[in-house]
Amino acid sequence: MSNMLGARRRLGLVHVVLVLFAAALLVADAGVTSSYRRKLEATVEMPLDADVFGVPLGYNAPQQVHITLGDIEGTSMIVSWVTANELGSSTVFYSEASPDPYMMELWAEGTHTRYNYFNYTSGFIHHCNLTNLKYGTKYYYAMGFGHTVRSFSFTTPPMPGPDVPFKFGLIGDLGQTFDSNTTLSHYEANGGGAVLYVGDLSYADNRPLHDNTRWDTWARFVERSAAHQPWVWTVGNHELDLAPELGEPVPFKPFAHRYPTPRRFAPAAAAPPFWYSVRIASAHVIVLASYSAYGKYTPQWKWLRGELARVDRAATPWLIVLVHSPWYSSNGYHYMEGETMRVQFERWLVAAKADLVVAGHVHAYERSHRVSNVAYDIVNGKCTPVRSRDAPVYVTVGDGGNIEGVADNFTQPQPGYSAFREASFGHATLEIMNRTHAYYAWHRNQDGAMVVADGVWFTNRYWMPTDDDDTS
User: Fold this and answer.
1) E strand or H helix at 117
2) Residue from 334, 361, 427, 443 carrying the catalytic annotation
3) In what residue span(s) does the Calcineurin-like phosphoesterase domain sit (predicted)?
4) Which helix (H) or strand (E) holds 141?
5) CA dist., res. 398 & res. 255, Å (int)
6) Which CATH superfamily is domain 161-199+274-471 in?
7) pLDDT digit string (tens) for 136-165?
8) Does 334 qualify as catalytic in the annotation?
9) Which has the closest alpha carbon to 144: 210, 70, 82?
């Protein structure tokens, strides 16, 4: 009898140990739902007379100035601006040597466009591509000659290479509220050489009759950053501006006229592609369009297949993909809206060993572990995301501060693929150090600009595919 009792006790002890071990594994795998609680305040749009919306002084002065890369290599820059009173000049003068507009020795001639949207007529929208620029060089540029001249400066990205350091800002769903202003101010304080913007810009379509004057105010608001460093644009759902009831059956009309990209420099082109890529320092950045067709054999599908084959990880080790609608999100808002694109393309990104996929759309912050969900074949039942060193980290930064407010509807319990999540506004940065290491950080608006609320060191999937997705 005593032997039987002893055996039972030992079995019971083994059972307890196994239960505790399993519990420890669950805890180790569990993500963090931040306990931080932001102040319960309404998200308020800035008034039209706010200084950030101010029209520059002078007759027909260029306004809404912004720049983006003009080619995949980073040796050209598209300069865009609006003149409100009359067409004026589409010429940009620029120089390495002199900030004086009348001493700039180089020049380029741009194009212009204009559009009507219901009861709105845009100003004259100018685009000018400055080509054959030197890498890592500061340029001064000016426009508005003949009326009111304004001048700015930018620094071109460094020459692509495997160990070239560079810092990106990651911003999405910005809008034009007081929270939006805090987000942009914090990013400016943190510094960066370019912004990877993951869609939903002005939220003009949230206004009655899709009030396109809010496209103008938004562009004047972001000019303080976007005129001095390239913003890499991703199209979101609020760029659709599809309103047949207003006699506006063409999608993306305002965005297409205002925001050129390397693949669609002709603003009036029919059916322009909103997917493209750029190479910046040691990163190859692929921009996908969540609201353009991406099914098998569509133009976007064929383009991405070819583009992934062109990625050279020896030259640009960091592979970053931008989308608008997240592929992995544990928030009830917009839940699984990116699922069809994930099913179509995730297998390719895992095979390519992509490092990071950045999305917006959901107005909260979330970072995933490196997970993959590509094993499922309908009959095998393997439909749960699993940890994979070949998979990217997925981050959602649709937390820029827009008028629709914070998405505070996270699912419970937190799924295993989610590493950190919080219903707050903010922005993220990705600082690439070399071919093996990059530091990723998310900054909530309620803290000082430099405070990191979620930070992790990433190791490169091609050069050093270690387990790297635990918060440091």
Assistant:
1) strand 116-117
2) 334
3) 166-365
4) strand 138-143
5) 18
6) Metallo-dependent phosphatases (3.60.21.10)
7) 999 999 999 999 999 999 999 999 999 999
8) yes
9) 82
